[in-house]
Amino acid sequence: xxxxxxxxxxxxxxxxAEGKSVWLSTIIxxxxxxxxPVGAMMACTQDGELVGSISGGCIEEDFLQQLREGxxxxxxxxxxxxxxxxxxxxxxxxxxxxxxxxxxxHVMLELIQATPHNxxxxxxxxxxxxxxxxxxxxxxxxTGHIDTSPExxxxxxxxxxxxxxxxxxxxxxxxxxxxGDVARYVAELALSMDYDxxxxxxxxxxxxxxxxxxxxxxxxxxDDLVRDQFSNPYSGIIALAHDxxxxxxxxxxxxxxxxxxxxAMGSERTSENRRLRLPELGLSEAEIAKLHAPIGYMIGSKTxxxxxxxxxxxxxxxxxxxxx
Length: 324
Hints:
Structural class: alpha/beta
Strand order of the largest sheet: 3-2-1-5-4
Largest sheet: 5 strands, antiparallel
Number of helices: 11
Number of domains: 2
Helix content: 25-40%
Order of helices and strands: HEEEHHEHEHEEEEEHEEHEHEHHH
Number of strands: 14
Shape: elongated
């Protein structure tokens, strides 16, 4: 289910460290309706172990068939460098690969050997992403040499006749506060959207019966957890405890950070009372203005599952800078 850049890079780094060569496919350009954006990746070993996606599945099947038949290796041995494959150029191919009408993909393929340099390079990229730092992968299109750069562009791909720069972002993470039913549904939905999810509740016994596979659990003090792990632009903090001792403690620290999203569940009256309390905790008007409360979009939600949908809809809109 996970297909983020970070997840794929982690697998490439792991496979190279095991001495396996890896095919890496990167979407360079798209036309019309495309199932995946520019910069999306898919990685595959020579044995057919595959992670990531560049389409809804048909291109992946075509790729694996060419891998089994040896066509990819033959072309690489001929060109000795990264090469481009164009998908969906004809209406017949669009139909065969089940691409949307008019959709085209230009995909760059690299065969990355398990050399000491490549092992070190992908390990460095994986380490940077684990530390929630953006990093760029630079590929010499003439020689295939891969290097890294700390500089990163808002453009996923920067392309010239001799070099490709691929900006890579860490996996987004969410901190949920309060071990309740709404948090359970938010966590399950967020995991399906490829977020790294942590649930924090410092109140005794609250975590005892709360469990969602894949979610990290913490009984640490919320402000400490925010300060140590969730203070960067790839983090979101969602207060769901309905307890000021938990929610306000986290918000006090969260609103001072660069977190891309900060929200708190509650009614209009609860939210207004919270805004009246926060200045007493040393927060400025500008900091308090970053708070989304009441949390989520107004969709008439009543059940915990519906509330979770409204919350993640707002989180998604804020992450992609789409205003209400």
